[in-house]
Amino acid sequence: xxEWAEMTASTxxxxxxxxxTFAARGSIYRDNHQRAGATLAALFPQGVTINSQDDHERxxxxxxxxxxxxxxxxxxxxxxxxxxxxxxxxxxxxxxxRTK
Length: 100
Hints:
- By secondary structure, the chain is mainly α.
- It folds into two domains: 1-29; 31-98, no CATH class.
- Helices cover 78% and strands 0% of the residues.
- The protein contains four helices and no strands.
- The chain has helices at 3-29, 32-43, 53-74, 82-98.
- Helix 2 (32-43) packs across helix 3 and helix 3 (53-74) packs antiparallel against helix 4.
């Protein structure tokens, strides 16, 4: 097999893996990106100003918390999503450490 053919096959395999991951996660998380967006909009109805590195880092941690909480909520009827709720403890502790 030529180098081009190997790279093409490798690229196709990586893309197929991404499609498989999208399908598998989508069946669990469903429309979570929309839930997370609506939650962030509700938390910051006037928008949010992010200027400093600290602002960016704190917002990133808040975003991760929201994503994990909304993932948990999506699986509410199945008892929640254990990995996501565990992650919230970690991100909340990290955010607390950044809070002045």
